[in-house]
Specification:
Strand 2 and strand 3 form a beta hairpin. By secondary structure, the protein is of the alpha+beta class. The radius of gyration is 14 Å and the shape is elongated. Strands 2-3-1-4 form a four-stranded antiparallel sheet. It has a single domain, classed as Alpha-Beta Plaits, CATH 3.30.70.920.
Length: about 100
């Protein structure tokens, strides 16, 4: 499984419905499960981003589809980063 870091900010709509953020997180977990993506952590943060999530997905397409689905709800704008573990980066740098 590949790892991803999602950096998200609430839209105006997301801020107006902030009391539902916990319920929306549950919906995020449910949608992820349907797409064979595992959410390992969700953090609500202070600073430039409002939410940071850590995902495991079988491929880039699965992660992208999940984030498109979540983005289409209008509560968040997000940026998804492919993340490499120490073991993965060692394997990659061995190719150099």
């Amino acid at each position: 499984m590949a790892n991803y870091v999602v950096l998200a900010s609430f839209t105006d709509q997301g801020v107006r419905g902030i009391k539902d953020t916990g319920m929306r997180a549950k919906g995020f977990h449910d949608a992820a499960k349907q797409m064979n993506v595992r959410i390992t952590e969700i953090y609500w943060t202070l600073g430039h981003y409002d939410v940071v999530a850590i995902l495991e997905a079988p491929d880039d397409e699965s992660a992208a589809a999940l984030m498109m689905k979540v983005g289409s709800l209008g509560n968040l704008k997000s940026q998804t980063l492919r993340a490499f573990s120490e073991k993965e980066i060692d394997s990659l740098t061995a190719r150099i």
